[in-house]
């Protein structure tokens, strides 16, 4: 089955009141786990990868080929999107589109509003021609992602009126407003601004994305979905599950050197974790 954009996938999720998980690729094993989980759960899925992670793995072309080959190998028939995540570069987004990514995120959230709009419009113009979906962000989400740290002093909530203007003028397919989530583990209880989320949904009408989906309580997830969240990003949690599984195997078998054995256990652990997320998000059985 060919890769699909997130546009129809997320519009369906918004209409039916569930969310599609975006799970980030950090190695071959992560991509295997995500696709196997989606097949077993009969769930749509978004495989994401950041610019830095893609370069570490050999570049966006290799990632696109790898995912397409795995879909064929596993005979995956559920909708799968390949998403270029959190890129601040127009050129890199266009490169990802041309090598086979079905969705991109242009992140100009660190720019003033008008500059963010202009940058996003450029990406959308190309994406529309190629049938690729575009996600964008407003506000600054705190925490760390790929070495980029936004501390609490720099973090800002999205402003609903600005979000309305942004979505109207750019025509993005998915919008990620900063409402209090963080990239990476939470320090204490998550504090999400559901009032902002509700107003932003009312003003924009497009599927919304929740970044920083690790450690969010299930009741928060359900409320966010009811208010317009159709896409939830999870990365840190899967990395922790993977690392924990590797440590466990090597602690129990300190002389083990066959990578396939300890990495295989980690892949299975991630797959099981992702399947649980799909059930929590309500996407299981929705393919």
UniProtKB/TrEMBL annotation:
The keyword Lyase applies. SUPFAM superfamilies: Aldolase (SSF51569). InterPro entries: Aldolase_TIM, Class_II_FBP_aldolase, FBA_II, Fruc_bis_ald_class-2. It holds the Pfam family F_bP_aldolase. GO terms for molecular function: fructose-bisphosphate aldolase activity. The lineage of its organism: Bacteria, Bacillati, Bacillota, Bacilli, Bacillales. Its cofactor is Zn(2+). This is Class II fructose-1,6-bisphosphate aldolase. Its EC number is 4.1.2.13. The keyword Lyase applies. The gene is fba. It comes from Effusibacillus consociatus.
